[in-house]
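ok so i was messing around last nite and threw this chain in just to see what happens. nothing serious, just curious
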Amino acid sequence: MRTIRTVLFDLDGTLIDSIELILASYRHTLAAHGRPPVPDSEWMRGVGTPLRVQLGPWARSAEDLQTLVATYRDFNLANHDRMISAFPGVVDLVRTVRAAGLRTAVVTSKNREGTRRGLSLVGLEEAIEILVCADDVENPKPHPEPVERAVTLLEADPASTIFVGDSIHDLHSGRSAGVLTGAVLWGPFRREELEPAGPDYWLEGPDALRKLLLD
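result:
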């Protein structure tokens, strides 16, 4: 059994249940600017990638993309606190992992402001040592850069690091960065949707991750 000393977590769909807020924010953004609606399944395929990537195909110019992103963020922040919650068992898990001496980070395609707000809301800000957010990298997930940056900042060994995420983009990013990958099955994606990424571990629930890390 490998010894894991560093745990990198995705945020949305892994630590916090925010998918309905994300989908509502996309729906609102297109409607506010008179664009035709897009099926939720289309947005779901891009979960785990930055806003500029998701909204880019519906932007008419670089300036229009900035406007779409701003509209999304305004709606998202206005509705954030009432629509966000931690997945059951996750807060206790992360706190226990940190208390046991493992290193922790969040690697997300959300910007830093939104990331800190989400972690603070569910009581996890103190349990996470560093953040790697969309505004910290040139190449977002599924590129390895976000995971590589977290590993560097923590001075961690990739061989004893795991990236825990719910989307295929998380898993591809982790694998490309040379760390172990854990596929979250308590989020919005099913096993068959994540299988193409070939994760090292399947995590049915927070207890499965607790056993992997601490038993």
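not much to say yet. The longest helix spans residues 62-83.
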